[in-house]
Design brief:
mainly alpha; 3 helices
Length: 155
């Protein structure tokens, strides 16, 4: 049997590698998003801590310096939270871009796999037709040319 050789096998292998790279990039982007979300959550918890501390200071003996410091800490946390929210949005956008690249890589790989399958099917049809032709030639040769044994036995 003739061996099937897909002419664009190297391209298909490149598509597999590109898909793997896109999967890795997507995983990294997802990890970064989770990390940025954790940072945001920590900042929000810190702000909540300062707000609770401010409430506590307001109910206890008034220490204006401590109250002012706590209010400043809350404002600083609000600023950092806004910055971190921007980082979270960036990470979300990067994740979405990585998802799109991964999806495109998967589509390209599947397209080349389908091309390979169709090429293989065409190869198999051609091979089967070739086999049928050879069988037909053998059969027609046997029936059109009686063997020497039969002729010798009769003569």
């Amino acid at each position: 049997m003739t061996k099937f050789v897909y002419k664009m096998e190297s391209i298909l292998q490149i598509k597999y590698k590109m898909e793997e790279q896109a999967k890795t990039a997507y995983g990294n982007a997802h990890a970064k998003l989770i990390n940025e979300q954790k940072k945001l959550e920590e900042l929000m918890n810190k702000r909540q801590y300062y707000e609770d501390e401010l409430t506590s200071l307001m109910h206890s003996k008034l220490k204006l310096l401590d109250i002012k410091q706590c209010e400043n800490n809350i404002e600083i946390m609000k600023y950092y939270i806004k910055l971190q929210q921007i980082e979270v949005k960036k990470a979300e956008q990067q994740l979405e871009a990585a998802r799109v690249r991964l999806n495109n890589a998967m589509v390209e790989r599947k397209t080349h796999e389908n091309l390979k399958e169709k090429a293989f099917e065409a190869f198999m049809l051609e091979y089967e037709a070739e086999q049928r032709k050879e069988i037909d030639e053998l059969v027609s040769f046997k029936y059109n040319n009686p063997t020497d044994d039969q002729e010798e036995g009769n003569g």
